[in-house]
């Protein structure tokens, strides 16, 4: 959801004037927007606001353009801390209309971004991709503070399966600001990150090759927002998605258990990081807290990545559910992501939903503990095999 505003003007005139277009001489709508109404920002251009009325939060035109002020008197005010009920998805009805303007934008971006595939999927050629006629693809989205190597390391049940099959490609996507993209600007919002990533892999989705989505932690929300954008522009949907170890994106604001990183001191941020997986960050992962690495590398990366989820605004109230199966697994030793939060992913599919708790593993030890990783990846490969005809 975009930024929220409250109508504070129009107390004498029965509401404020709404126009059809941005221009102050465009057609005036017959009804006024009531004082006290809440609206969602669609676009802000100078002193003109393109809004959508929040259902049940006022009267007047559902959409239109209004002025922020009349002379020196404010007509609307930003409501940064307003918490509205989150409805979540609904069962689909009929075919979704393609957003042609957004499709044109992503297609235009993809014409140049496809040349950057090796930057954002650095192991693509290492595994001798592209294949001449792949039968299946897997797209991987990593957790906060991490990198694509979580998925692309050699000699795992996943990469061994891909190599042995000989007809599968996988694309483990790297987010800017780390590893080979260290000098690229970090992204702290899905609104910038997901169009970029989708434009990079656009051709690999648009060609119709069956595919599977695998996201972990904040990577589940990267995958979700990328899929919502892909669906919006008419791209094929995956055979299934594996979205593990993170709450579904329509988690109500008052149920969010983690702390916003923007306001945390360096020491408090370290505590927050440790809370995500004490076994990992108290063991092999404690290297991130060493002073020679923390201030220059890990603190800025963690702050940017954490802002992806702790400043996230859910924008998909009433969106149709997906028509492919979802798998959402909870790690037994999680601190923040509780089982009921993970189980909320089931709201997003009209097909089969697979929820389970993985014993012994933590938020990150499932990737960084070698024994756990082997077991974890073997289970996931077992799921993937059920969706490919090889």
Keywords:
Rossmann fold; SH3 type barrels; five-stranded antiparallel β-sheet; six-stranded parallel β-sheet; alpha/beta; 12 helices; 390 residues; single chain
Give an overview in words.
The chain is an alpha/beta fold and 390 residues long. It has 2 domains: 4-78, SH3 type barrels; 100-385, Alpha/Beta hydrolase fold, catalytic domain (Rossmann fold). It is built from 12 helices and 13 strands. The chain has helices spanning 100-113, 117-120, 149-152, 157-165, 190-206, 218-232, 266-276, 278-281, 291-310, 339-343, 365-368, 370-385, and strands spanning 4-7, 38-45, 48-53, 63-67, 69-70, 73-74, 76-78, 136-141, 168-173, 211-216, 240-244, 326-331, 353-358. A 6-stranded parallel β-sheet has the order 9-8-10-11-12-13, with helices on both faces. β5 and β6 (73-74) form a beta hairpin. α1 (100-113) packs across α5, α5 packs across α6 (218-232) and α7 (266-276) crosses α9. The longest helix has 20 residues, at 291-310. The two termini are 41 Å apart. The model has no long low-confidence stretch (mean pLDDT 93).
